[in-house]
Amino acid sequence: MSECTRRESKRQETADSIVRSAIALVTKAESIDSVSIDDIAQEAGISRRTFFNHFPTKITVLLEPLFVYRSRYIAHVLNASMSITAWRAVAQAVAKTIADCDDLDLVARSEWILTRLVHSSSAPADIPHRSAYEAHNNALRINLQQRLNQDDPIAVELLSGIGDQVLRLALVAVRENDNKDPRQAAQEAVTHSFELLATNNFGL
């Protein structure tokens, strides 16, 4: 292993430790404000300076797993063959995202922090990775529009929203079924979601 590779591996290990420490502390406290950056640094066994060498804010750390999770989903959609339908591209991307995720429980806790704690925190409400988030969304919309072969912004937004919502429901299932293997719980939620959508079992 080269020196450059070793340094990058060490940097990734440190970043992972910071993320896990932050999410563990905030989840236990059920509060973002009651956990300081110094608390996170101490838990991760690093200095405050090292924390800021890896992450600009506390919110960025807490939402990092969720950002990576959704980024991988979008990458799967973009990399899918253009010969398949938009619906199939979304469904396959969701399935691959679940299958490829190393720690669904960590992502599920990150999503819980976003939906349950961020709104009540005094931390800045700015979205971490905002420019990347917007670029990802734009790339997804363009790709889905090309697959749909129609200039209907509502159709594009609806399909984009379905993918995001199914991914979120998979994480909810992970949290609510702690007696199950996280991947199994997520996959079952995904399967059920798409079955409901395919059968239109809503009385519409």
UniProtKB/TrEMBL annotation:
Q: Which SUPFAM superfamilies match?
A: Homeodomain-like
Which InterPro entries does this chain map to? Answer: DNA-bd_HTH_TetR-type_CS (IPR023772), Homeodomain-like_sf (IPR009057), HTH-type_TetR-like_transc_reg (IPR050109), HTH_TetR (IPR001647)
Q: Would you say which domain of life the source belongs to? A: Bacteria
On whether Protein biosynthesis is a keyword of this UniProt record, the answer is no
Entry keyword set: DNA-binding, Transcription, Transcription regulation
| Cited Gene3D superfamilies | Tetracycline Repressor, domain 2 (1.10.357.10)
Output this protein's name.
DNA-binding transcriptional regulator, AcrR family
